[in-house]
Design goal:
The complex is a heterodimer.
Chain A: H1 4-17, E1 22-30, E2 35-42, H2 49-54, H3 71-80, E3 85-91, E4 95-103, H4 115-125, E5 130-137, E6 140-145, H5 146-153, H6 161-177
Parallel strand pairs in A: 1-5
Antiparallel strand pairs in A: 1-2, 2-4, 3-4, 5-6
Helix pairs in contact in A: 1-4, 4-6
Chain B: H1 7-26, E1 34-39, H2 42-46, H3 49-62, E2 67-72, E3 84-87, E4 94-96, H4 101-113, E5 121-122
The chains are: A alpha+beta, B alpha+beta.
């Protein structure tokens, strides 16, 4: 994966497949302290302990269409190669949460990437899912909540290019305003 | 400095569009909608499915084609990602592999608009005589 945004796009598909109705994504960054944390929590089916142990093994997957599963192992790899850490917790029936700590200023830390694009795609492509994205920097916090957006626009899937463009610009401008690292 | 876009601006935009959207809804009939699923799993995303999905949504709208573009998981064709499944009204779904922007444009132009088949179809749901 080329960016953290793409990892988010990938991992939210896992949540959607685990029948989650709400996914909470948060990024907290502090370039001065050198920390950069990505957290994703869902209220999906969750995993049993034995599956949880296998989840970061690239040769394990819950799918039947193929026999490898790279989503989580790649996040773990990318976090660990900046000297960071990776934690995965899950409880059957309650949901799953993932925490990846990156070293903010490490040359191998992935860029955030086109998060505006990713959030709009997820909002359009997974209409059954409520997505909350929170980005914290020393300059402030920005929160994007699809429930609030849908209240205003109705079904985004049927809405137009204009609204999608607007949402993208809104996210990008707000992140710029709080000086989010690229 | 320009003012940052906010939810209030979104509300205004939406209100200004109300008339246009109503028009679309009345002309809406489910049988005439083109359905496209973009395989959006680790393999697909790593090979550029995000750009393809954005491109498809923007292009279809510019051609005023009534379409629903959604995301699906990996169909097992990791070697041919990005893959998309196109279902034209009244037809069986067809899966196209190795879709980049040029191929996406070709699929819209030839298959969706003119109903001609293009190269790169994956045999995902072919039928045999006995079923």
């Amino acid at each position: 994966m080329k960016s953290i945004a793409l990892h988010i796009l990938d991992l939210v598909q896992n949540s959607a497949r685990a029948k989650a109705s709400k996914v909470f994504i948060s990024i907290s960054e502090d370039p001065v302290a050198g920390s950069y944390q990505l957290k994703i929590q869902d209220d999906g089916e969750g995993m049993k302990e034995e599956i949880l142990q296998k989840a970061t093994n690239p040769f394990y997957t819950s799918r039947t269409t193929r026999r490898i599963g790279m989503g989580l192992p790649l996040v773990k790899l990318n976090a660990e190669r900046t000297g960071g850490s990776f934690k995965l917790q899950s409880e059957p029936g309650k949901g799953t949460s993932m925490e990846a700590d990156f070293a903010c200023n490490h040359p191998d830390r992935l860029p955030l990437g086109e998060i505006d694009d990713v959030l709009v795609l997820l909002a359009v492509g997974l209409p059954q899912l409520r997505l909350v994205y929170e980005h914290k920097t020393p300059g402030g916090t920005y929160c994007f909540d699809t429930e609030v957006i849908r209240e205003i626009t109705g079904n985004i899937q049927e809405s137009s290019l204009e609204i999608r463009r607007f949402l993208k610009e809104m996210i990008a401008e707000n992140l710029k305003d709080i000086n989010a690292e690229s | 400095m320009n003012k940052i876009k906010s939810l209030d601006d979104l509300r205004q935009l939406r209100e200004g569009m109300q008339a246009k959207i109503k028009l679309r809804e009345s002309g809406d009939n489910a049988e005439n909608i083109v359905r496209i699923k973009v395989a959006m799993s680790t393999c697909g995303i790593a090979s550029g499915a995000k750009e393809i999905m954005t491109y498809l949504m923007d292009e279809l709208e510019q051609h005023s084609i009534e379409a629903v573009v959604s995301q699906t998981g990996c169909m097992g064709y990791c070697f041919a990602e990005p893959t998309i499944e196109v279902t034209l009204p009244g037809k069986d779904p067809i899966v196209f592999g190795d879709v980049d922007k040029y191929r996406a444009a070709e699929i819209i132009e030839k298959y969706i608009i003119h109903n001609e088949l293009v190269d790169g179809i994956l045999p995902a749901n072919y039928r045999t005589i006995d079923n």
